[in-house]
Amino acid sequence: MGAISNLFGYILNFIYKFVQNYGVSIILFSILLKLILLPLSIKQQKTMKKTAKIQVKVKELQEKYKNDQMKMNQEMMDLYKKENMSPFSGCLTSIIQIVLLFAMFGLVRNPLTYMKKIDTTTIENYKNEIRQEVGENSISTNYPEISIVKYVNENKEKNDAAYINMNFLGLDLSSVPQENIKDPKVYIIPILYVLTSMISMKISTNTTQKNNKDKKILEKENKEVKKEQEELDMAEQMTKNMSWFMPIMAVSISIIAPLGLALYWLVNNILMIFERLILNKILDSKEEA
């Protein structure tokens, strides 16, 4: 992930040179990254709609060939091929999200290495200076570079190589919630992230329910609950559970990571909400036409 964190650092530092604020830089970086990934988001949205619609056909095949597993699998593969879909089409997006998560974590954890491009020797010199002036235990074990940034921001000039303006709307983006439990301000961004995650999941659920009307009708017509239907419902439930995995993992990490990471996820969530609303409206309009 270091290579991706390094690339992101170049972009974030380029933006920072213009705005001179870490928080604003993260917001603009998030918007830029969302625009770059927009084609993938459009494809994912189309796949979600198409997947929901062919579920009724999948159940029909499972019922029709319930006694012939090989024939059923073949027919299902033919269905996906006919619809120009892959059963694993949603995996790519999940993989990309996980890669971005850890790349951004590396970036906000080591802003001097990846963003400011300060060499290891200079960073060690900063550590030794802080230990001599403040004390041996003044450097965070988990976030040594964040400790350096805090020290430089409080004791050095703004033109120092390690200076990064971490103040954003009264919040210190270098703060770690786990290390500042008594400060209520450190929970503002993580809480907003949780709320926007719930809104985002609600939009996704509503989209799936809207595109599953035919599937619900079929389920009502079938009085007996078939084994194959139960298996499919279980798979669908697992998919829904997995959709909660990223937000839960993100919240867990945001508690132990600097607030800059939580801000990135919050902005990304807000952008995703607007993106889904707009794309849903456009795709629904095309279907009606």
Q: Could you describe the largest sheet, including whether it forms a barrel? A: 2 strands, antiparallel
Q: Tell me the number of helical segments per DSSP (H or I, 4 or more residues long).
A: 13
| End-to-end C-alpha gap | 44 Å
Return the string of H and E elements: HHHHHHHHEEHHHHH
Beta strand count: 2
Shape: elongated
What is the multimeric organization of the chains shown?
single chain
Whole-number radius of gyration?
A: 24 Å
Beta-strand level of the residues, as a percent range?
A: under 5%
Please list the strands of the largest sheet in the order they lie side by side. Answer: 1-2
Mean pLDDT across all amino acids: 78
Itemize the secondary structure elements and their pairings.
Layout (H helix, E strand, L loop, with lengths): L1 H18 L2 H15 L1 H27 L4 H14 L8 H19 L1 H4 L5 H14 L10 H12 L11 E2 L2 E2 L15 H23 L2 H9 L5 H17 L1 H12 L2 H30 L1
Antiparallel strand pairs: 1-2
Task: Give an overview in words.
- This protein is mainly α and 289 residues long.
- The chain is built from 13 helices and two strands, in the order ααααααααββααααα.
- Strands 1-2 form a two-stranded antiparallel ribbon.
- A hairpin with a 2-residue loop joins β1 and β2 (171-172).
Features:
289 residues; mainly alpha; two-stranded antiparallel sheet; 13 helices; 2 strands
In short, what is this structure?
The chain is built from 13 helices and 2 strands; from the N terminus they run ααααααααββααααα.
